[in-house]
TrEMBL record:
Keywords in alphabetical order: Metal-binding, Oxidoreductase
Record keyword Metal-binding present: yes
UniProt family annotation: Belongs to the multicopper oxidase family.
CDD domains the UniProt entry points to: CuRO_1_CueO_FtsP, CuRO_2_CueO_FtsP, CuRO_3_CueO_FtsP
Pfam families given in the database record: Cu-oxidase, Cu-oxidase_2, Cu-oxidase_3
Protein name: Multicopper oxidase CueO
Signal peptide: none
Ranges where the record places region Disordered: 472-493
Subunit structure: Monomer.
PANTHER family reported for this sequence: BILIRUBIN OXIDASE (PTHR48267:SF1), CUPREDOXIN SUPERFAMILY PROTEIN (PTHR48267)
EC number: 1.16.3.4
InterPro entries, per the entry: Cu-oxidase-like_N, Cu-oxidase_2nd, Cu-oxidase_C, Cu-oxidase_fam, Cu_oxidase_Cu_BS, Cupredoxin, TAT_signal, TAT_signal_bac_arc
Length: 493
């Protein structure tokens, strides 16, 4: 049974009619004060207490529903524990995690813990298919630094559809350190799940996620599922945990008044020092944690600006921040949000190269679920070099933490120098990564690496690697077919 208290309720949202006009897709200049008035929805936390056997037991139900996103329109949507999106999962380093994932959808799907370091059979990639009506029960011990990760379906060929319909949520990992950052969830520690959509006249999501070169670049920006949201600021500083949960769109984030803010975390954890910026680029799957300062009475919009890259097409408002006339004091910006060890490839580190091809292959081959492309010894630090194509891409590696060594020979900017799992690969560029692999071995359960533009990953711009005991690499067969243990989960009654 799914705990009903944990159901994501968008009821509050449905009652709010945003006072805005057309959905024609044109950016409007509406009357002042009439837009960006819908309260920002904050996904509820799902942080179960320790149960009798010392584990945290999460229950997630994938389901269909309808959601009022545009005023007066019911959009058919998919969600976890509710009609649209999913709760924010939260657990601490060292916790034993037990998941019950129930598929109430009409199609087989999976749930991948993007940015969470788990044994391969628990990863929720395309091999851990959950049939309609079936239940999947992965379990693992959480062991990684504090970070903002997320979860989403990963069925081969239909990930774009499943995510587009609304299946996505955040997964916050805490650790024992005091990071000195604002930490009141929904008050001064606020998740922003950024996604773009296209709507048909009847309010349904339109557009083919597999069309064209990049799939959908929508003309409606949703933040936590809300179009034109407003967030009421009550503190001097707010920490934003930002996820690019879009199909393809690059968010080129900036405030309308160009105010500066501090990046304090990348995908894989917090930075050694805050980095001041006035602009921040996130490609699909990437996360950042930032701290923004506000003055009493501020009224400012966070926007995404066209920067000439196809994926960032158009200027759009995302969320409006309205500060109270009296703001509660916030902790000073910490000098050292965290101290994560640098990922340093040893002398003679293994170099692997990945040439992204067009929109559907890596190293000349499209994804084959039966083929193991790479075999990596447990605990290795390797250099992975990703070569772009004539299209824009990015690159995500499951299980690992990496640091960007260089992009076309130049070190990454300080605000993107931390631990990551997803990185932008600009047109015709070469990105080199120092990749730290984990210690969970399983020669017959692969992890994925792929472009996180969902149209590309669904078309086959993905490969598979296994992590094995050092010294056994050459014994690992490069095909999975006819092996046991690769069958989909049987239906469960
Ligand atoms: Cu966010 Cu392999 O995915
Ligand atoms: Cu992932
Ligand atoms: Cu791509």
């Amino acid at each position: 049974m799914v705990n009903r208290r944990n159901f994501l309720s968008l009821a509050a949202l449905s009652g709010v009619a945003a006072a805005c006009g057309s959905r024609s897709g044109e950016r409007l200049e509406p009357p002042p004060g009439a837009v960006m008035a819908t309260p920002l929805f904050v996904p509820p936390l799902l942080a179960p207490p320790l149960d009798g056997d010392g584990a945290r037991h999460f229950e997630l139900a994938m389901q269909t529903g309808r959601t009022m996103i545009l005023p007066g329109q019911q959009t058919p949507t998919w969600g976890f524990n509710g009609a649209f999106l999913g709760p924010t999962l939260r657990a601490g380093r060292g916790d034993v995690i037990r998941m019950t994932v129930r598929n109430g959808l009409p199609e087989a799907s999976t749930v991948h813990w993007h940015g969470i370091r788990v044994p391969a059979a628990m990863d929720g990639g395309p091999h851990q298919l959950i049939q309609p009506g079936a239940v999947w029960n992965p379990a693992w011990t959480l062991d990684q630094p504090a970070t903002t990760a997320w979860y989403h379906p990963h069925p081969h060929g239909t990930t774009a559809q499943h995510v587009y319909r609304g299946l996505a949520g955040l997964f916050i990992v805490d650790d024992a350190e005091d990071h000195g950052l604002p930490a009141a969830y929904g008050v001064d520690d606020v998740p922003l799940v950024l996604q773009d959509k296209e709507f048909a006249a009847d309010g349904s999501f339109s557009g083919d996620p597999l069309r064209g070169i990049y799939g959908i670049l929508g003309d409606h920006m949703l933040v936590n599922g809300v179009w034109n949201p407003r967030f009421d600021v009550t503190t001097q500083r707010v920490r934003l945990r930002i996820l690019n949960g879009a199909q393809a769109r690059m968010f080129n984030l900036t405030f309308a008044d160009r105010r500066r803010f501090h990046v304090v975390g990348n995908d894989g954890g917090l930075l050694g020092a805050p980095v001041e910026v006035d602009q921040l680029v996130l490609t699909p799957g990437e996360r950042a944690e930032v701290v923004v300062g506000f003055a009493p009475g501020d009224d400012v919009v966070l926007r995404t600006l066209d920067n000439g890259v196809d994926l960032a097409k158009g200027d759009f408002d995302l969320v409006r921040f309205v500060a109270a006339t009296g703001l509660k004091p916030s902790p000073a910006l910490p000098a050292h949000p965290a101290t994560l060890p640098a990922i340093v490839p040893p002398a003679g580190a293994r170099l692997r190269t990945f040439a992204l091809g067009g929109r559907d292959s890596i190293n000349g081959r499209p994804m084959d679920m039966d083929r193991i492309d790479e075999v990596v010894p447990a605990g290795a630090v390797e250099i992975w070099e990703v070569d772009g194509s004539g299209f824009a891409h990015n690159f995500h590696i499951h299980e690992v933490a990496f640091q960007v060594l260089d992009v076309n020979g130049a070190a990454p900017p300080a605000h993107a120098s931390g631990h990551k799992d997803t990185v932008y690969v600009p047109v015709r560029s070469k990105v080199r990564l120092a990749v730290q692999f984990g210690r969970d071995t399983d020669p017959s359960s692969p992890y994925m690496y792929h472009c996180h533009i969902l149209r590309h990953e669904d078309a086959g711009m993905m490969g598979q690697f296994v992590i094995v005991e050092p010294g056994t690499e050459s014994q690992v067969p490069h095909t999975l077919s006819a092996r046991p243990g690769q069958q989909p989960t049987p239906p469960h009654h």
